[in-house]
Amino acid sequence: MDGMLDRRPVIVGVDGSPRSIDALRKAAEMARLLDAPITAVTAWQFPITFDGSFPTEIWSPEGEAERILSAAIVTAFPDERPERLTAVTIAGPAASVLITASENASMLVLGSRGRGGFAGLLLGSVSTACAQHARCPVLLMHGSPGTTKDSAAETRRAERDPAM
């Protein structure tokens, strides 16, 4: 096979955190170097205690994931979105979703820490699980000096107004 058909995508996990914005930018750079498409993935799931009594018209975890992913893309690429970027939201625990996606990827790019957990940890639970179990090379981004706080503010603005 020749051309795009035999190119495995660079998968990037996006949770809207500053490090995932850095990972999205790095994934675009790696995809360009590998001449591969990019797939930005945001995982979502209902809260463990969800009993179905809360109307999903008011709050939808899938809709929230789509909003976070859209805002992250706008923040990472304010001028021009990469040409071969696909954005998907997938139901399931983040680590499991990303490990499954890694089976058909040329590379998996993640931020070393996401939105949850304990700030003092070097790696988050998702990045640790992916580093241990992914089926492709994994690149963990520890953030760019001086851009992390700026990325967080830009993402919050983009979440409020994705059309910016």
- Roughly how many Å is the radius of gyration? 16 Å
Briefly note the CATH topology name: Rossmann fold
Query: How many domain units?
Result: 1
Strand-pairing-aware structural class? alpha/beta
Q: Determine the CATH superfamily.
A: HUPs
As laid out across the biggest beta sheet, the strand order is 3-2-1-4-5
Largest sheet report: 5 strands, parallel
Contiguous runs where pLDDT drops below 50 for at least 5 residues: 117-122
Strand content: 15-25%
The level 1 CATH classification is Alpha Beta
In short:
The protein has helices at residues 18-34, 61-76, 94-102, 125-133, 148-160; strands spanning 10-13, 38-44, 85-91, 107-111, 138-141. It has 164 residues and is of the alpha/beta class. The termini are far apart.
Helix-strand layout with pairing:
Elements: E1 10-13, H1 18-34, E2 38-44, H2 61-76, E3 85-91, H3 94-102, E4 107-111, H4 125-133, E5 138-141, H5 148-160
Parallel strand pairs: 1-2, 1-4, 2-3, 4-5
Helix pairs in contact: 1-2, 1-5, 2-5, 3-4
